[in-house]
Amino acid sequence: MTIKAPRGTNDILPPASFKWNYIEKHAHEICRRYNYQEIRTPIFEHTELFARGIGEATDIVQKEMYTFTDKSDRSITLRPEGTAPVARAFLEHKLYGKALPKKFFYFGPMFRYERPQAGRYRQFHQFGVEVIGSDAPDVDVEIITLGIDFIEEFGFEDYYVEINSIGCPECRPSYLEELKTYLAGKEELCENCQERLKTNPLRVLDCKSPVCQEIVSEAPVITDYLCPDCQENFSQVKQGLEKLKLDFKEVPTLVRGLDYYTNTVFEVKSDELGAQDAIFSGGRYNGLLEEIGDRDIPATGFALGLERLEILLEEAAREFGDDLQVYITTIGEEAEAESLDILHRLRQAGYSADRDYGGRSVGSQMKDADRKNSRYCLIIGSEELKAGEVNLRDMKSGEEESVPLDGILEQMSKVFEPEP
Length: 420
Ligand code: HAM
Hints:
By secondary structure, the chain is of the alpha+beta class. Helix content is 37%, strand content 20%. It is built from 15 helices and 16 strands. The chain has helices spanning 16-34, 47-54, 59-64, 83-92, 137-152, 172-183, 191-199, 210-216, 228-243, 288-293, 306-312, 333-348, 362-371, 382-386, 408-415; strands at 37-38, 44-46, 67-69, 75-78, 102-111, 123-132, 160-165, 249-250, 264-269, 278-284, 299-305, 326-331, 353-355, 376-381, 389-394, 400-404. Strands 1-5-6-11-10-9-7-8 form an 8-stranded mixed beta sheet, sandwiched between helices. A 5-stranded mixed beta sheet has the order 13-12-14-15-16, with helices on both faces. Helix 1 (16-34) packs antiparallel against helix 5 (137-152) and helix 5 packs parallel to helix 9. The chain is elongated, with a radius of gyration of 28 Å. The chain starts with 15 loop residues before the first helix and ends in a 5-residue tail after the last helix. The model has no long low-confidence stretch (mean pLDDT 94). Histidyl-adenosine monophosphate (HAM) is lined by residues 81-83, 112, 114, 119-121, 124, 126, 128, 130, 257-258, 278-283, 285, 301-305, 307-308.
């Protein structure tokens, strides 16, 4: 039996991989403009980082982590997300001693044992940004804008922004009390929510069950319980977004699946994505660094699901790839032997160049050149070789010209001359 990839994982084959490269290139470019710098953290961490950082009672920690014991009996977990690792690296390398805030971005695979469906996988990839060391509402505005600018770069405009504030450890407990009192005795709540009511009542607010949603629609609203500081903070975030003419909707039931959030949380969604509709999501997490490293340092960030963005980019993947510049077609053994050196010289000079390796007919080689989207074809025949020449065919116009064997590179630099 052939071995298949594990359920919930994907192979990214060419030409889809061109699209991934293209997306990553744009992410780098947007981060350059916003002055965010790349950080790379390990794919696995000590389990405790996520248990404490994301929260023991969350679905991620309870049900979805890929956790194993290594050969030295340590509990290790494949990272389910990138925020806790970035915060860990920030603390470990004492970056708080440097000018703050630090603005990071990252890419990489994340792992969650979820039920796979369109847009939801067990290995998926995130592009994330984290700003550590500032509690300015303008930073929350900046990251939301960065994410929006990024998706708009692809001409994608069918999205909407939802925001909420979930307060701070000062004001949230009194809200939770109210919420618990309201939900107590509501036996129609689904089984999951009955459990959440005990462990994580805030999560009842975003249950997808219609019955729970009906109950929640009458529940007390968190923004009515914010302390003056949290109220001020939230209104400044909203004012900043308004100033930048960024449409958003306040959704008082928006809460997140990770426990580290404080104040502003947000999700940017698209109806084109079906049930898994969040393209990117995040928020402020002022308590996380204290939780994992005893340092009271505010932070904010988001992560974007690259598979979901890829679904939204409808254009043919082929468009995102670089075309082959030169394909070498040979006629006869002598020409084939000569092509080895010519191909090598072309590549060393910086051109993307390829050939056929199978000794096939000229017709098949030309077809192959076409399939590879080759811009030019260098045709080497034995007669021409004797005369010290080769033919260069423009694959768009079909025009052919003769080029001296020792003048190939010069001719290439002319035809691929950058546009003025
Ligand atoms: P999250 O909402 O769990 O937040 O994930 C962020 C994004 O990753 C989602 O909006 C979605 O696009 C994508 N995503 C999540 N799970 C999957 C999955 N199973 N398959 C495919 N895509 C998925 C976080 O991870 C936080 N660390 C975000 C953050 C950064 N908050 C502050 N800084």
